[in-house]
Amino acid sequence: MTTPATFLSALLLASTALAQSTPPTSATSTRPASATTTTTKRPIRPADVMRLQSVADPQVSPDGKWVAFVQSGVDASKDKRNPDIWMVSWDGKESVQLTNSPDGESTPRWSPDGKYLSFLSGRSGAPGTATGAQLWLMDRRGGEAKKLTDLKGDLEEYEWSPSGRKIALVIQDKDYSDSAKTKIRTPYVMDRHQFKADMKGYLDRRPMHLYVFDVATKTLDTLTKGVYDETAPAWSPDETQLAFTSNRSTDPDKNENTDVYVIAARSGAQPRQLTNWPGRDGGAVWSPDGKQLAYLRSTASTNFIMYDQPVLALVAVDGSTTTVPQPRLLSLPLDRPIRNARWSADGQMVGILVDDDRRTHVAEYRVADGKMTYLTTGDRAFADLEPNPKGGWVTLMSEPQLPTEVYALESGTTRRLTTVQNDFVAPLLLSTVTGYTSRSKDGAQVSSLLFMPPNGPAGKLPAIFYIHGGPVSQDTYGFDLTRQVLAGGGYAVVGVNYRGSNGRGIDYTKAIYGDWGNKEVLDILGAADALVQKGTADPARLGIGGWSYGGILTNYVIASDTRFKAAASGAGSSLQLTMYGSDQYVNQYENELGLPWKNLDKWLKVSYPFLKADRIKTPTMFMASEKDFNVPVAGSEQMYQALQTLGIPTQLIIYPNQFHGITTPSYQQDRLVRYLSWFDQYLKSNLSTTQTGR
């Protein structure tokens, strides 16, 4: 029902990652300079989603002189985004496009000698070879990429060995269900407790295992077997071992446990368990001397740990004992979620990203004494972190008026390496973004972000409260396309980090456990009261909307209070009782709410937007994705039907063949157009509703 923070991060990236570009025809051409010369700026419009580029996955070359990354733009003729591999020099003076195929490329990784770049692509190879994502190899000096693997299963992850002679692969067994000559798929047969997941669909029991690929001979050795999945492989510096993550409990479907294991990098070796926390351990990375692993451990040890924040842990890798060693929990006193743990090149520091009250910053922990130092400051949001072998870090960063770019981070100073977004922002008059705090009815202090319309009129403005999903995520000072577009339409736009959000400590996040639609509603109403009292928002022209848990909270709010004159609820649900068995959150339901047949009162309590739909007076547009297994389309259909029956103005929009996150560019634009049209109809009835260029 609700959306994990990790998914929300992916969703926000997807929603800001679509654009059009005109790449150079030569793979070795440098990026063309900006051709925009106009000095007349305009507000951002929904159509600008087609121009916006995404930047992701920066990787530093072994000599520290280049950074490879993925840049994605929109192919308007095919209505899809197309990722390509680029690289930029460490001094930022030269940028080179390396791939340019209609199939797209992702996951660039340098060979340890720095001579080659590998990547994943579904581009076709020789006739008769396997399809799906395969591993390709490109000489960084130029020339065509060569297909390295011909795998029958699904390639999920890969990692070069330190010598460059081998590559660790994570491969899911081949799916033979569609092998019939008639092209008619065989029936889905499920016998798992967790039998569905968004994007993956119905789940079978095909495991993901570790393999070692020999680059010279192109032979594949099986490293692990059995019924369990193995992910996140990491080579030891001496190339003798691999660390990986796995859930090897009796029934992995019924818990959130994962642990870190190590295994000798040879066929027939048996894995050794290195952690035994009942919660979640994973994502291990080796120290340069091979003596320790840094990894992330959950704070909670309970079965369902959505309301949690990862902790940086260090554990010694001692092969002389069979006992599980005790880890050092470096960031536990910080009481903030951390991620992207990476060792510095000299092994003295572990770099991390820290989510802290509307900001995400880079920090380092000194291994010797556990002291933490922030390397960045200000109203910004960093994402991704990789060390430069020569010292310093490469990272991604965005600001309220600048989408994501690649940055070098040296001695506490950030230096921008890419100029991907220059053409996008050049003609735009973007919203200014400021933070403010409010106090809820029960005394809770809540942090929010306010987007003011560029060149907006003086006085009280129509305001839209656009609520983030998760619930365990946060609105940050990073670039936000949706709120910028709404502000460009003449609205004051607010993002509220209600209780349940992260970045404010574990108690703040856990405050809504088993109590949905209560404290979050108080926080949103308190944020609205504060904006009205400041004279910024017109109390007669308030709107609310959101996607995923933001859509769910929209339903809760309009069933609790009639002050909002228009609402747009996306990928939401209200009759939560019907979500059991129809979405992917069976573990959350059984642990947080209990079994429906034993805890019916609690289930009915959190279903109040549907059961008390006759209290809703707000005209509401409901939106959903046809193939969403995260929050199934029924959640929006039920509320739409209820409001139709009650005679409340309503509309239902369903996007064909989309999962929880809308990824088709034209649908992304359409959603923004519909937001503005719906809010204009009810919040600007006495004003002009004409919006140019939608």
UniProtKB/TrEMBL annotation:
**Family annotation (PROSITE patterns):** PRO_ENDOPEP_SER
Which GO molecular-function terms appear in the entry?
Answer: serine-type endopeptidase activity
Bias (Low complexity) occurs at: 20-41
- Quick check: keyword Acyltransferase in the entry? no
Gene Ontology BP, a term: proteolysis
* InterPro entries tied to this protein: 6-blade_b-propeller_TolB-like, AB_hydrolase_fold, Pept_S9_AS, Peptidase_S9_cat, WD40
Q: Which Pfam families match?
A: PD40, Peptidase_S9
Region forming the signal peptide: 1-19
Question: What does this protein's UniProt record list under function?
Answer: This enzyme catalyzes the hydrolysis of the N-terminal peptide bond of an N-acetylated peptide to generate an N-acetylated amino acid and a peptide with a free N-terminus. It preferentially cleaves off Ac-Ala, Ac-Met and Ac-Ser. Also, involved in the degradation of oxidized and glycated proteins.
Q: What is this protein called?
A: Acyl-peptide hydrolase
